[in-house]
Amino acid sequence: MPTTAELFSLKDRVALVTGGAGHLGTPMCEALAEAGAHVIVASRDERKCRTVAEHLSASGPRALGVRLDVGDEASISAGVAAALREFGRLDVLVNNAYGAGAHRNPEDMPLEVFESALRGNVVAYYAMMKACLPHLRASGSGAVINIASMYGIVSPHFDIYRNSAFYSPVHYHATKGAVLQVTRYMAGYLARDGVRVNAISPGAFPSPAVQAAEPAFIEELRRQAPMNRIGQPHELKGAVLFLASAASSFVTGQNLVVDGGWTIW
Question: Which pLDDT score is estimated for 109?
């Protein structure tokens, strides 16, 4: 029987994280690297990815920063190929990249914005899974972690956004809800191949820029959470490590909600 340390170890495993140089992606990469994984930090900003990869490599296993646009199939293929050239295998995919789109109310949002959001998020997540699937199968214990949102489960409290420059647009809720269903579908499809597919639904984790620009908005978010605060990025590290490692070897098709209790109401 493996020890707890062995269950959570990712030694010699290889993980690819899209949106890996961002507000939430960076601590996810750190969690995987600190557990022993080689991490491919991927996003459209190659410079930022390389900076994060250098930070990871300085204190852990070798990491790689690559440019990868999840909305471009050729870019996805090139990014996955770069990971395989460097490490020869792929064990974990974290689908985290998100194209925000317009933060506008439903009446003012052009249909093409809604359609673009679906393609840039739902289709992109599926495209990443499809590109990585042969390598995750070959791993023998592959894991996919799709980053959804509490807003894929519940609707917003609209009063929070009424006096804010920020808006929780309908396409965000639609795409994150769809991600959860794609997760369940692919979990069932891949269960007998030894590939687990799960999701994490964070909320609320506003960026430092949002916190600085809208303190009243942040206060409203805090008031709505049972734990009476917003989330800190490092608080996703445990969830990512759990779902990427053998600690969750009998867990698939699940949605791990990390929201300070927001969705209990």
Answer: 84
Q: In this structure, is residue 211 part of a structural domain?
A: no
CA–chain centroid gap for 159, Å, is: 27
How many structural domains comprise the chain? 1
Distance CA 93, CA 260 (A): 25
**Closest C-alpha to 128, from 52, 61, 46, 40:** 40
Q: Please report which confidence band the pLDDT of residue 102 belongs to, taking 50, 70 and 90 as the band edges.
A: low
Per residue in 143-176, is it b (16+ CB within 10 Å) or e — as a string? bbbbbbbbbbbbebeeebbeebeebbbbbbbbbb
Active-site residue, selected from the candidate residues 98, 125, 151, 172: 172
> Which helix (H) or strand (E) element contains residue 253?
none
- The CATH number covering residue 151 comes to 3.40.50.720
Is 189 catalytic? The answer is no
